[in-house]
């Protein structure tokens, strides 16, 4: 039996590792140069890895969790989970789900352990992004118009949440932080017939002042055409601790959501943001020029911290 392994809890700890690294049993076996059946025996508690395999597994975890070492294997389950940044996984029983023969909905399976990691990372970074924002994007109709919408990021129910109102539709969902990006996954709140996703470039600054990335959704045309385009969020103000006052300010910001025309004061204030949104880098379209922008490279990102030069 290898030193530094809690025999009784090792299977549960290994399940957490699979979630944390977003690995299948087969992929872990490949990385450790062993058989999938061996990994299955470890998870079932019928065997333990050899010293060499445990050393390789520890190094693999350390590549994602700084300073993780053999000593960490001896920690209590709650401490081990916290060390991996997976405290919620223990509370929600995701480690058990990850090893089940019938894992249930895919979003709760082992392949989506990234949601747990991303949720905790987003909460840690919440102070940089909380507040009211003004969103700028092209219209999903792809008619060359620009749209402004109200956007809020706030901590609610133990998660970093967002909501958005563009004057026609209302969206809401959760923000996940992974790989230096903010992933906003949400749904239309009235009809409940559409999902929306944004991937935003984050900032290495105490407080974000502007964020940009890509938004994916569907148009309101008869074909419900899917599309993706560049989106920019410009910080407006911090949210209010008083719920009623925060809602009043939110409604005020939402009332400004609209299509933007060339002489619109908001568009004039946006300046270069509008020019960036109007850039067309994609394949030619048939009816309205080029199709929507599909990439926002980091070296051309507009994301920046507040007061950052």
SSE blueprint:
Blueprint: H1 10-21, H2 25-32, H3 36-44, H4 51-62, H5 77-83, H6 87-92, H7 94-99, H8 113-124, H9 126-129, E1 131-138, E2 146-156, E3 159-165, E4 170-178, E5 181-188, E6 195-201, E7 208-218, E8 226-237, H10 243-254, E9 258-260, H11 265-270, H12 272-278, E10 304-305
Antiparallel strand pairs: 1-2, 1-8, 2-3, 2-9, 3-4, 4-5, 5-6, 6-7, 7-8, 7-10
Helix pairs in contact: 1-8, 2-3
* CA distance, first residue to last residue: 56 Å
Q: Major sheet, described briefly?
A: 8 strands, antiparallel, barrel
Low-confidence runs of at least 5 consecutive residues: 95-110
Number of strands: 10
Strand content: 25-35%
Structural class: alpha+beta
Structural account:
- Helix content is about 35%, strand content about 25%.
- With about 300 residues, it is of the alpha+beta class.
- It folds into two domains: about 10-120, no CATH class; about 125-305, Beta Barrel (Lipocalin), CATH 2.40.128.
- α1 (about 10-20) crosses α8 (about 115-125) and α2 (about 25-30) crosses α3 (about 35-45).
- The radius of gyration is 23 Å and the shape is elongated.
- It starts with 9 loop residues before the first helix and ends with a strand.
